[in-house]
Amino acid sequence: MIPNWLLQRAYLTPNRIAIYDETEAISFAELHERTAKRARQLVFLGVKKGDVVAILMKNSAHMVELIHALHYIGAIVLLQNVRLSVDEVKWQLEHSGARFVICDEPFPDERAIEWSEVTQLGERDEKWQTMYNLDDVATIMYTSGTTGKPKGVMQTYGNHWWSAIGSALNLGLREDDCWLAAVPFFHVSGLSILMRSVIYGIGVYVMSSFDAKRINELIFQQNITMMSAVSTMVQQMIQELKAPYPSSFRCMLVGGGPVPLPLLQSCAYWNIPVYQTYGMTETASQVATLSPDARHKQGSAGKPLFHMNVRIEKEGKQLNANEVGEIVVKGPSVMKGYWRNEEGTAAVLKDGWLHTGDIGYMDDEGFLYVLDRRSDLIISGGENVYPAEIESVLLQHEAVKEAGVVGVADETWGQVPCAFVVLHDVTATEEQLKQFCMNKLAKYKVPKRIYIVDHLPRNAANKLMRHKLKKWINE
Ligand code: ATP
Ligand code: MG
């Protein structure tokens, strides 16, 4: 058991700022007041300890209140992606057994209640969860479904606690830290910022949608010291830059996928301290993180956080350094399992070891390299081809803005890689790009076709959905 994080913060550091947005700065004491009122209103609505309550919202200060309020009551918060279709949202509500879904906008479902209605409700007093049981489920998040049907990851209070502690032990902690949240709270990259805020007592700058120009302004005003991002966000921020970042900005945590080498190089040029990280919904955020001073390890996701164990396996056996296999991880931030999905849980969690479905290796100094998802691996003429490797080569070409690679059935080779690119410079041709790949890659890795398109299919986390690219080829 551990004290309720926001309650404890409101007691220990009431005057520190918890939340900033474009209109106000809210202290921990004030955030607690607002949260307590919302909790009383939710109790009035009929929310009870143990209920699943969904939130379908864009980032906002009131979304933060709502998450904490549900935890005051002891409800389990289901965070839903606002970009899902109505049917997908309903499927999650059904599957999770949610009693309500609280949303910004009207949503066609009998369980839906709008935020504006919540604020009008009466209030009923209830005893708060003044202590959190580390083994209780705090949040459920369905994985983005990049590889298939979404699974409801159960994240406990303990998972969030350890994730926050592990991150601080690695990145350090400063009283004046302020973490910019431009990634959505319905993904673990965003939610984990809120958990860190109340555990560390630091501010969060809440952004409802990504705005590269505005973020740069905030960083130059020296208000923001840390930020979480995916690489496409960083790329857009760099395009807006005229001067290098000030040294007050100390950490750009970039995850969700590999960071292309040319981007890392421009980050070094613009004084952007990139920490590449590897993690997933199932581990309540970071598993391993690479600090910018490990320059000689470029392309690595770094070493595991203090509380995490990482090993590489093949057919149940642990491999040696530099051997490629599945990344398996163990530690107190690994999920309890998938909600109402024993079979799915048993398939990935064995003796506490989470089988990530990602392929990679550890070098002899213990740095982790993530190659790709097992399911996206292309086997061409018996050779393993990692789409991420080809994408990163394509991105080195000046004309290429975005790249996605998938395997396509081929009579001779079984599968061959094909690429989709979005261009900065539309005069570049498929032939030129192939020639460029030819110079940098083994022949069997050179995409057989390179399709020039105007956008790539990405999910709300800005992640490339390779299974959709496969469909594009078949259409
Ligand atoms: P689903 O499990 O439904 O297919 P998802 O795996 O995309 O969805 P997330 O939990 O958001 O959902 O993403 C975690 C995955 O992102 C990791 O398992 C890994 O494949 C990829 N990833 C994260 N960080 C990195 C990294 N640094 N390098 C390469 N891949 C990464
Ligand atoms: Mg996954």
TrEMBL record:
GO terms for biological process: fatty acid metabolic process; menaquinone biosynthetic process. It is an enzyme of class 6 (ligase). Pathway: Quinol/quinone metabolism; menaquinone biosynthesis; Quinol/quinone metabolism; 1,4-dihydroxy-2-naphthoate biosynthesis; 1,4-dihydroxy-2-naphthoate from chorismate: step 5/7. Pfam families: AMP-binding, AMP-binding_C. The keyword Nucleus does not apply. Keywords: ATP-binding, Ligase, Menaquinone biosynthesis, Nucleotide-binding. It comes from the Bacteria. Its EC number is 6.2.1.26. InterPro entries: AMP-bd_C (IPR025110), AMP-bd_C_sf (IPR045851), AMP-binding (IPR020459), AMP-binding_CS (IPR020845), AMP-dep_synth/lig_dom (IPR000873), ANL_N_sf (IPR042099), MenE (IPR010192). The keyword Transmembrane helix does not apply. It comes from Anoxybacillus gonensis. This is 2-succinylbenzoate--CoA ligase. Converts 2-succinylbenzoate (OSB) to 2-succinylbenzoyl-CoA (OSB-CoA). SUPFAM superfamilies: Acetyl-CoA synthetase-like. Residues 9-339 form the AMP-dependent synthetase/ligase domain. Residues 389-463 form the AMP-binding enzyme C-terminal domain. CDD domains: OSB_CoA_lg (cd05912). The gene is menE.
